[in-house]
TrEMBL record:
The keyword Mitochondrion does not apply. One of its GO terms (molecular function) is CAAX-protein geranylgeranyltransferase activity. The keyword Signal does not apply. PANTHER family: GERANYLGERANYL TRANSFERASE TYPE BETA SUBUNIT, GERANYLGERANYL TRANSFERASE TYPE-1 SUBUNIT BETA. Keywords: Magnesium, Metal-binding, Prenyltransferase, Repeat, Transferase, Zinc. Residues 25-351 form the Prenyltransferase alpha-alpha toroid domain. Its EC number is 2.5.1.59. GO terms for cellular component: CAAX-protein geranylgeranyltransferase complex. This is Geranylgeranyl transferase type-1 subunit beta.
């Protein structure tokens, strides 16, 4: 009888018809799933129409992680993404406090139907991050983007405490949007869009007593928020990569405590969860595994059991579900694939963890 370690080592085991969906990483089915999602979305994604660019980011960037960008009509994608950029009619509009980035879809490009409605420009920090991530993934020359309005108007989204709002009015402000702002500046290679010192102060204030980070100061530690904190610091050049192995501990966050909290997120079933007492969930293999990778501590992950857990979330339709034996969704499929790249699955390109895209 084959040892568990030997399973899948014979090339004949890799044919799609042999074994169950959970025996091997089924690259071909993931390619089919993402290609299909890039063409037509199932009806239940209707409610996400406003976030269409985020869904496109999962599909395009996911195809990148699978080494399948030849399946993407790059010109069509580029033209569509560029059509979502918000433009100013004249320079004085940049002083209005509104943000001129990218819209999530055409539906937010039309002004409010209420003539007294306050929001005439629905561009959003998360949509802007996704737009730029897509453009970079498909090889668009980003120097062609009119980035001055994006960066200039982004500054007015930063709050006195260093956090960011994603739009100019009435929204939450937390670490997610600090991360989006840092990723935007990093992709555009221009940090005029934010005050990094202020952002650093805010991030440091979000570290909790247990070592993890909450979305806002004083809130419960969470894997997603912890990723946003550490990836932002790395993008801003405020922490070194591999600081665990280099022993290069910064003085404004507690790295040993962070490491302890992060490692405790791997459960007995091998998967990662986002916060205490929650079940393992595919996406946290990336959010939390990504933090360990940035810190240079990925060798402390129990890789074999994580891979096994992730395979229980790989579905017969291609893609990944949140928890075992559920239906796939684009969000968990994308982050599941990123996790396989972090686990150095044979044939997968490496990813730039802090930007959530394949390395150039
Ligand atoms: C809790 O949802 C979710 C959060 C507190 C947000 C976490 C942040 C991220 C996932 C990062 C976002 C990244 C970008 C690029 C903006 P939940 O209660 O449904 O999740 P849980 O039960 O798994 O904790
Ligand atoms: Zn999840």
């Amino acid at each position: 009888m084959a040892k568990e370690d030997d399973l899948g080592s014979d090339a004949s085991d890799l044919s799609p018809d042999s074994g169950s969906d959970q025996d091997f990483f089924n690259r071909d089915r993931h390619l089919c799933y993402l290609q299909m999602m890039l063409g037509v979305l199932p009806t239940y994604y209707q409610v996400e129409d406003i976030n269409r660019i985020t869904l496109a980011y999962f599909a395009v960037s996911g195809l990148g992680v699978l080494g399948g960008l030849h399946l993407v009509d790059k010109e069509m994608v580029i033209n569509w993404v560029l059509s979502l950029q918000a433009h100013v009619k004249d320079e004085t509009e940049l002083e209005s406090g509104q943000f001129y980035g990218f819209h999530g879809s055409k539906s937010s490009q039309f002004g409010s139907s209420n003539s007294e409605g306050p929001i005439l420009n629905g561009s959003h920090l998360a949509s802007t991050y996704c737009a730029l991530a897509i453009l970079r993934t498909v090889g668009y020359d980003l120097s062609l983007i009119d980035s001055t309005p994006i960066l200039k108007s982004m500054r007015s989204l930063q709050q006195p405490d260093g956090s960011f709002m994603p739009i100019h009015i009435g929204a939450e402000r937390d670490l997610r949007f600090v991360y989006c702002a840092a990723a935007i500046c990093s992709i555009l290679e221009n940090w005029d869009g934010m005050d990094r010192e202020k952002a650093k102060e805010y991030i440091s204030n979000c570290q909790s007593y247990d070592g993890g980070f909450g979305l806002v100061p004083g809130s419960e530690s969470h894997g997603g928020a912890t990723f946003c904190a550490i990836a932002s610091l790395r993008l801003m050049g405020l922490i070194e990569d591999d600081l665990f192995t280099k022993n290069a501990t910064p003085n404004f966050i507690d790295v040993p405590l962070l490491l302890e909290w992060t490692l405790q997120r791997q459960g007995r079933d091998g998967g990662f969860h986002g916060r205490l007492n929650k079940p393992s969930d595919t996406c946290y293999a990336f959010w939390v595994g990504g933090v360990l990778k940035i810190l240079g501590a990925q060798k402390l992950i129990h890789k074999k059991s994580l891979r096994k857990f992730l395979l229980t979330c790989q579905t017969e339709y291609g893609g990944f579900s949140k928890t075992p034996e559920m239906l796939p969704d684009l969000y968990h499929s994308f982050y599941g694939l990123c996790a396989f790249s972090l686990l150095e699955e044979t044939g997968l390109p490496s990813i730039c963890v802090e930007l959530g895209i394949t390395n150039r």
